[in-house]
C-alpha cells in the first residue's frame, strides 16, 4: 500500500482561486497561513458562465458540480495543478423546512496527486430574502431587514410576458430610491432580492470562510491506514436522540469516514453532540 506524506504534499505550492467575486479575501489568508501557499486569482476569469444568483444565467449543475467546473476551468486558464473554488446554495433546513439555510461548498483539486477534497459549512445565519415592492415603505422595510447597504440589493422588473430586467450594484439608498421611483412611475412590477454575490454580502462571505476552515480541517484529517490527506465524511447516520423525550430524531448521530485513496472507512460519533434540541424533534415539536 502506498504511504502518503499527509498535508505536506500541499505545502509551498501555487493555488488558483477560481473567483470573480472577491472570495480570495477570506480564502487566501487561510491557505497562506496553513500551507504557506501562493494564491493566484486569474484575471478576467468569468464564474458567471456557470450560473448567477441574480438569475441572468441559470445554474444547470448541482452546487458541487458547479464548484468543480469552476476549479477545472481556472486550472486550464492558469496552467496550474492546484485550484480551489466555492459554490453556495440556499433552501430549507434539512431538519426543519420552516428555517432557511445556506450551504457553502469549497472544492480543492490537486491534479499532481489526483486529489479532490471538499469543505462544507451550513448555517441558518443568512439574509437570503425577497419581497414585492409597491411603494417606498416596502423598500425601506426590505432594505432594513437585509442590512443594506452593507449587504447588496437586486431589483427585478417583471414584464407582462414574465421577462425580467435586472438592476444591481446600488451603492447607497439615494440611487436605489431613484431607480424604484422611476420604475413605479412607469407602472412596473418590482421584486427586490438580497444580493447573494459574495463581494456584496458579508454574511455569506463569512460562511465561505468557515467552509474553507472546514476544508483545512478535512485536509489535515489523515487516513489511519495510508496517511493520505482528506480522510472525510461520506455518509451521515441519523437517529440522534431528543434531549427531552429520548426518542430518535433526524439529527445526525454518527458519521462514516472514508479514504479516497485506499478506501479504508470507519464510523465516528459526532463530536460534542449527545442529544438533539427538542426544537428539531418530530415528537416534541411536530
TrEMBL record:
Name listed for the protein in its UniProt record: DUF6671 domain-containing protein
Record-linked InterPro entries: DUF6671 (IPR046612)
Organism of origin: Aequorivita sublithincola (strain DSM 14238 / LMG 21431 / ACAM 643 / 9-3)
DUF6671 domain location: 75-286
